[in-house]
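Possible regression after last week's pipeline update?

I re-ran a chain I had predicted before the update to compare outputs. Posting the input and the new output here so someone can diff against the archived version. Not blocking, just want to make sure nothing changed silently.
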Amino acid sequence: MDKILVLDFGGQTAQLIGRRIRECGVYAEVVAGDSRAADVLDLDVKGVVLSGSPYSVYEKDAPHASADILDSGLPMLGICYGFHHIVAAGGGVVEPRESREFGRASVRFLNGAGGPLFAGVPDGFVSWMSHGDSVAELPDGCSTIAVSDTFIAAAAYEGRPVFGLQFHPEVSHCEHGRTILENFATKICGARREWDVDRYLSEASDEVARRVGSRDVLVLISGGVDSTVVAALLLATVAPERVHLMYIDTGLMRKNETEEVAESLTGLGARNLHLVDAAEEFFSALEGVCDPEKKREIIGDTFMTVLETRIAELSIPSDAILAQGTLYTDMIESGKGVGKRAAVIKSHHNVRSPLIEAKRLAGEVVEPLRNLYKDEVRALGRRLGVPESIIGRHPFPGPGLAVRILGDVTRRRCEVLREADALFISELKRRELYHKIWQAFCVLLPVRSVGVTGDARNYGDVLALRAITSRDGMTADVYPFEMNDLLEISSLITNSIRGVGRVVYDVSSKPPATIEWE
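New output (post-update):
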């Protein structure tokens, strides 16, 4: 099968590049940026993409592609750091500038058109930038084909299929980004369209069957889309009587979560569904903990501790292999990309918990969604017959409300947030806004604000509303509410939720912010 190779230098969107190319029907494979040609190049490889990185090319320990890949003669596309890498390797100059670009930037072609890479892309399209370093001087034989207001936005070698982009075509907020990647993969590289979700399902099922073998498998269920899709995949691949689904009620869940989880999993054919009330263990472990990374670590370890103590009580075989709904976004934000250069944005409890890492290293964890993004997971879930009521749910973090309560996590603060969040979501559904928004939730802040209730002065909690549009969670825009909706929802919350005295709306995009506050 024809494929495009993506070199991962530790950037946050290396897998997203591959995902976008796969959307075009072309298979893409992400490999470590410093891979040797002998290990990754074969006759199926039709082109190479050099991805971004948190490093600068002139740093001492910056990652580099091997010379035998750069000299392979294959078509190449450098994106951001990958562009800088191509420029530096060819003798050009990359340097930091006082002026930087983050977010939207208009791109103009120098000659009114951008050549084969930009076929079908209009002049002046809006790109998505995220860089501090910039190309100051191109190598001999390489020329500028597009610019932003301040910087070289795209360049190409003359007579060689080698291109560089300063912007990120892979992110959903870059206009015509998919067209640019499709042009590279199909027109410049000549790769055939041989990839679809059915093929992924077939390969994932084969891998699960091989990893699980004759053992029982235990799935930790959060109630969200990811773990539910993993459960559906396992129930379709492994004999249902060998699949154990454990839902651990941490006390940090959404309103009515336990009842909804039990109903949905039973509908999927689960025969061994274990509902565990472990709220006391989690609140005790989190008492007095305010640091976000520490919260996530504690929650991950407490999950494993509760899991291990309950297995014997519930007659689950002690050698059952653990399955999780870990996505690629979880892996890369936790610094667990393909290579060893990824920066930690935030540790996901099911990725960097020391106990879970130990199990993963021992080969005792199955994560069939680890190479997928949320929209791909939803497509896979539909293929497996998961109800749309579950597939269409907004994402919910594995650590639950603990990472939406800034500061100390207590039962009282959880109850305030749980009720406010339920009210917010119900209002979005009532106003027919829920399915226009990729993710919406409330955040309880660690400050109190003065207010007036009746004729009395009062100090109440401050609650932040967050609502974003996105395609895959790697980039996100703020949902543009009508002001009347915000005013009415704010009033409902302050009037209905005891303790909340002020409501604010988060208007930060990703980047520079992340979707969750912790």
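Follow-up from reviewer: compared with the archived run. Confidence is low (pLDDT under 50) at residues 345-352. Marking as no regression found.
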